[in-house]
Structure formats: structure tokens, C-alpha cells
Amino acid sequence: MTEQTPAPVSPDATVSPAPPVSHAPTAGSAVPVSGPLTVREISAEEAVETLLEVGGSFLQTPAWGRAKAGWRRTHLGWFDASGRRVGAGLVLSRTIPRLSRSYAYLPEGPGLPWDVVATDPAPWLDPLVAWARANKAFALRLGYPVVSRIWDREPVKKQVVDNGLLSFTSLPAAVDNPAARSLEAWLDRNDWLPLGADGVAVGQPRLLCVVDLRGRTDAELLKGMNQQWRRNVKKAEKAGVQVRTVGPEGLDTFHALYVESAQRDHFLPRPKSYFDVMARSFASEGDGDDRAVSARFYEAHVDGDVLASALMIRFGRTFSYLYGGSTERNRDARASNALQWRAMRDAAAAGCEAYDFRGFNTSLGATSPLTGLLLFKLGAGADVVEMVGERELVISRFWHFAFARAMATRIAINKRRKAARATPDAADI
Fold first, then answer.
1. Rounded distance, CA 65 to CA 268, Å?
2. Mean pLDDT of all residues in 116-124
3. Which domain of life is it from (predicted)?
4. CATH code of domain 38-145+177-196+390-411
5. DSSP states along 227-269
6. What class has domain 214-352?
7. Are 378 and 157 in contact (CB under 8 A)?
């Protein structure tokens, strides 16, 4: 998520309903559960089936597990007393070398009926902790996919332009979820420690930009964009920009544009091999464009000259924009706007409820090039959605301390190898 686009101007005042996030609690998703819950390993196919049923994140799929080299993956299922599977999650584990102790991580997961979980977390989380202890995990890290607050885009844009990137968090939110406050209080009482804070980028993003697609026509989605965005969509049409989708064969073109964007905006790009593994992991999930899990490169071109490319992932009811890049050639064609507009319409046509622009790096100042990227997303009609986010439970302080020291040493070594001008990529996807 690294493409720099000029900040939109002359916004139209529009307020959308609270955007959905497929792995967030939704009204009416309560699942009657009988008796105590248990957690045990399940197959990858069973995991996908359950995640689609309860609304889980693509970060909990087998494809994501295959994409994370160096991590052991385990699929877990939650079962009630009747033996019915009522939840699923992907545990990524990293083991201390030559020891059996491991660090366990569930990014944006697991897939559970979170509106039920938030009211009484212990019956759902205690079996997971017991499983982690039995498997010699010294720490358990979990991304809680519960919506905390939502801000409408217009006040956010004004506040960011006038007062800096994070100043909008002091504004009253359009949505403030009491279930999130209850869950956070329980987590605090039970020693689940928050990771990161405002101004620090840690793990998966806590602040997301999401466009609500529910029940909206193409005309309504276009109207939800600001004036500059609509103008740029028209410019792209007049310039003859066409958008196509390709599979893993689009990697080389994508990465070249992504690296060009990195050089232009002064961030450290990820290697091509990272995206190669990711694209192929999701491409192998099934056959055909109608499957529930898929990854595609979108390419915006004029007469075959690709000006912008982006990696998109669709899982269940959510369509996610992960990374993008563009060239300085023919900037007036507004290829990036055309690309996102095509992807948004594809998502709506596929029955998705949310177009997820993913997050933004909250450690950046208001003058950072990536602030323009945030405004680009808001101009497209996205609202800012804050999740409860990542928490960590330390099971063994000794092994956790040893692991933290080893990781700190590794990070310090890697930093010395990086170019002095480079900064980390905006998202820890």
C-alpha cells in the first residue's frame, strides 16, 4: 500500500453509513452455542469453510499461511459441546532455534462470532490459551477484529490537512462501539497487553480505510467520491486508460512500478520474492475468478503501456487493496484512479460488502508523502475504521524476554544494512 497520489482537493461533503469489515461483529451474527467450547486442530479446507461462514480475514486463510515463509502454520477449530464447529483460526508460530518454545500469532483473527465473544470472552479465549500452553508457546499474540470507532471521511480529511495525521483521533467518532470497550476492559484485566499506540506502527494496522459497498450502485459509489476523484476518473476515461486483471504473470510489471514508487516516495520496498510467494499462494487456492479466495494484479494501461499496478485480494465479503505502484510517465492520465475505480466496481459486482484500502502508518508526520496516500483513500469514499487491534499475552516471561532480545538484535543488524534514507513500508502485511 505504497503508491503516492496527489492529495485530493475541493471535497464534497458526504457522510456514509458505518462501513462493514467482514471480520468485525455484525448484527444478527449470534451463534447459539451449547456447553463448554474446545479448541483443536482442523484441516485447511475446514478452516476456509468456517471463516467464510462467520466472516474471517484473508490473513486467517491457508493461502496466507503458505505466504509466510519461516512460520509454522496450524489451523484451529472452535467446537461446542454438540461437536459443531463455530469458529476457526490460523496460528502462525515461530520457534526459538534449537528449542521447542514458540511465539504464536493469529493476525486479524480468529474467525469467531465476535459480537458474542465481546460480551463474554473467557469461554472463547481460555481454550485457545490452554492450547497455546499445551503446545509450549511462551507468548500468544492476537489481532482482535472488533470495530472500536469509525470516523466519517470529511472531518478526518480536514483535520489531517490542518493539524496532522493523528489529530482526527481527538474528534468525536461517528460510531463508538460499547462492545469494544467491554472487550478491552476484559483484556486489560486478564493481562492481554496492547501492542503499539498512536504514533507507532506495530503488526497489522489498527486504523483501516474502508468503503461501504452494501446495496450501492456504481453511480452511488461514484457520488460518494470527492470532486477531485470524480474529475480524475473522467480524465482517465478521456486519456484512454484501460484496466485489466492478470495472475502471477503480472509480478514483474507490478514490482517495477512498486520499486519506482518507493524511490520516489523514499520508503524501503519489499523484495520481489515476497510478492511472488504471496501471489502464487492465493492463486493456488482454487480455479476460476469466482472462487471465494483469490489474488490478482490489476494493471491500468494506455495502449499497452502499464502506468499503474496493484495487488488485490478477495476473500468472502471483503475485497482488499494490499500494495500498489505507479510511474511518472503520463501522470495526467490518472491511471491510479482508474485502477481503483475498476477494482471497486468489480468488488461490488462480486457481492462484496467492503472495499478495504487497508491501513496507514500512524508513525508518519503530516508532511510525509504517505499522508497523501491516506487522503487519496478518503477521497475515494473510504471512512476510517479503528479496530481493537493486536494484544499479546505473555505465558512465560523468561522465554519471552529471551525471544525479545534475540529479535531486537536481529532488527538492529537489519537496520544497519538498510540505506540511510529508507523507511519501512507502511504496513506489516
1. 24
2. 96
3. Bacteria
4. 3.40.630.30
5. HHHHHHHHHHHHTT-EEEEE-GGGHHHHHHHHHHHHHHHT-PP
6. alpha beta
7. yes
- Residues whose CB is less than 8 angstroms from the CB of residue 85 and which lie 6 or more positions away in sequence, other chains included: 42, 46, 50, 77, 78, 79
Predicted local confidence at residue 31, as pLDDT: 55
For residues 60-85, give the mean pLDDT: 94
Q: Is 178 helix (H, G, I), strand (E, B) or coil?
A: helix
- Does the pLDDT value for residue 104 go beyond 90? yes
Q: Do domains 38-145+177-196+390-411 and 214-352 have the same CATH topology?
A: yes
Q: Which amino acid is at 211?
A: V
pTM of the entire predicted model: 0.85
pLDDT at 173 over 70: yes
Helices H, strands E: what count in the chain? Answer: 13, 14
For the chain, give every domain's residue range: 38-145+177-196+390-411, 214-352
Element holding 148 (H helix, E strand):
strand 137-151
The pLDDT of 400-410, averaged and rounded, is: 75
The span from the CA of 106 to the CA of 424, in Å, is 22
